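Dear support,

We are seeing what looks like truncated structure output for some complexes. This example has two components. We would appreciate it if you could run it in full and send us the complete token output so we can diff it against ours.
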Amino acid sequence: MRLDFSVAVHSLLYLDENRPRKIASRELATSLQLNAVMIRNILSVLHKQGYIEGSVGKNGGYQLIRDLSDINVGELYDLTIPPTISYARFITGDSKGAKASDSTDISANISQTLTDLFTLADEDYRRFYHRFTMTDLKRDLHNHGFFRNLVGQNHPQA
Amino acid sequence: MRLDFSVAVHSLLYLDENRPRKIASRELATSLQLNAVMIRNILSVLHKQGYIEGSVGKNGGYQLIRDLSDINVGELYDLTIPPTISYARFITGDSKGAKASDSTDISANISQTLTDLFTLADEDYRRFYHRFTMTDLKRDLHNHGFFRNLVGQNHPQA
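Here is the complete output from our reference environment:
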């Protein structure tokens, strides 16, 4: 879900800002204003994927082991929000072809057309996030509007 | 919700295919494989917005009063799926600034940055749908892959 993406982004920005200090998940949770349990799953994913390093014990905690400029925002989006596996519940018609529900073939064929439309739209949506690195987000954090201007320049018609 | 968009698209395609016959909402519902109650709301929106004409009574029913080539898919998307009003539940941090939850200002500022990111991404997402007319969807319905190829041509890198 989308909150997972925000958890990842927020965590990486916080670890970056506090380098080289080791950060306990409880401290991170305080900054995120979420329960520590809610963020552990994502921290574990970030750890497995080699974004952060973690150690337990008295002096334990998480550290960022990559540069923000090397971390693509779309990469984090794909990691935390997997593509929809089936659009069936958003689609009308009789995709099974079980019933001759109308004589126009629309009912039998619209599922494929809408699935293609939604899939391509989602791919396009993900490409948007892939245009940015975490450095862009960090700049915006310190200077709201930076990101908005960046997109405006790429999309003069927007 | 996204199903509303599919209801609108499917209904318009069905009315187009059956011109000039007047179509009862029950017949439409059969093609959509939905309960008639679930589609009346969207039919009412399409009626108010001047896409379809409807009459009640024995010979009543809906008719499409616009050409598919004049109906933009993004227009239907915007009509049936309004933009998210607040991303608050998808965002971490302390946007109210109520607590000095950390010393880095990330917690207080990330809400604005993520809201801008999500808003711009959504605008971009809607632009994708605006690139097509209902004629494109009709062509794909009769020839699956048409739509996929169309996008491929626009996005050679895809």
